[in-house]
Amino acid sequence: MMTNLNLTDMETCYKVFRSDVWRKLNLTEDGFGFEPEVTARIAELRCKVYEVGISYSGRTYEEGKKIGWKDGVRTLWCILKHGLIKKRAPMRSQNPAASDSQPVESS
Q1: Are 32 and 71 in contact (CB under 8 A)?
Q2: What whole-number distance in Å separates Cα of residue 42 and Cα of residue 34?
Q3: In angstroms, rounded to a whole number, what is the distance separating the alpha carbons of residues 61 and 84?
Q4: Which of 33, 62, 70, 72 could form a disulfide with 78 if both were Cys (CB 3.0 to 4.6 A apart)?
């Protein structure tokens, strides 16, 4: 909704980029802020995004899942920060014509 991309799940952690696209992203987040930031940056570059289905079996808390409500709050903050606030660190390439047709895969 914030990026105008039609994605089913940005948090799956499987992402593939061409190296020239990756170098333009200028990412600053880590942890649960990574996915919202990378999604916003890809939208800014106007890259083509392809979703590919994956099989996934989530872990239980006993198996090592350590996510909690604070992680959800952090993710929401990053979605707002990178999706709404227009003051962002400058991208490494400011030539939108060069990036209009760069494919990026996401699941």
Answers
A1: yes
A2: 12
A3: 33
A4: 33
